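Q: What does the predicted 3D structure of Isochorismatase domain-containing protein 1 look like?
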Amino acid sequence: AAEAAAPPGGGCPAAGGGSVPVLFCFSVFARPSTVPHGAGYELLIQKFLSLYGDQIDMHRKFVVQLFAEEWSQYIDLPKGFLVSERCKVRLVPLQIQMTTLGNLTPSSTVFFCCDMQERFRPAIKYFGDIISVGQRLLQGARLLGIPVIVTEQYPKGLGSTVQEIDLTGAKLVLPKTKFSMVLPEVEAALAEIPGVRSVVLFGVETHVCIQQTALELIGRGLEVHIVADATSSRSMMDRMFALERLARTGIIVTTSEAILLQLVADKEHPKFKEIQNLIKASAPESGLLSKV
């Protein structure tokens, strides 16, 4: 079959299954590694990300190319290509920069509520305010039918999600010890949601769990919106620099009102009045947004 035979790439075929040596080239770098026999485009991309993730700008388009011995140069990876023998591939950024537009629709959005737990109450600045805003965001998610994923950092020691936050209807409530919310169970839950493109992320702490979650999500090609008035840390210095760093990576730092109104998009939306009532109930200005 055409898919089973690799185009000319040089080297000796691998025997049966097992691993195949591949040289992964990006920019001035070239790193040897292996992939399973029969690996295709997706696995090659995953390997590039594991090897060069800190150098790859996820907001650019790329093309994967294969070195073809018969032409003595790289060619675009043929459709249906599967690795069957030793080869050399490279990831080439296109010149056109992808624009992060930040459009949100309920059908392609998931809300991530990160570690809004009782033991953080006395330590996190403006914790009462972010609880209030977070609760309104979750009410909005229920009104608009948006899936919600919730994590709790080491709940045995840090307690459960605060009582003020109603987790009714959450798709997943998961304990964790890893700082990032991107756990295998979370990735599986995302895979079950057809067409998910955007994650609305809020909770604590901005410079730890929020930052690490956001970076992992954009590394997987998702667009991330961090809700500034629902996100805080123990230190406003840590919070401010985390938000600045994340914004420079292409993550969208925004507000709860902007998120909710972007999701309804039209005064004629059937849920507009209910969303409007949530916004009218917003907390007094806390000072959080002056420290973004």
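A (community wiki): The structure tokens above were generated from the sequence. The first helix runs from residue 41 to 52. DSSP finds eight helices and eleven strands in the chain.
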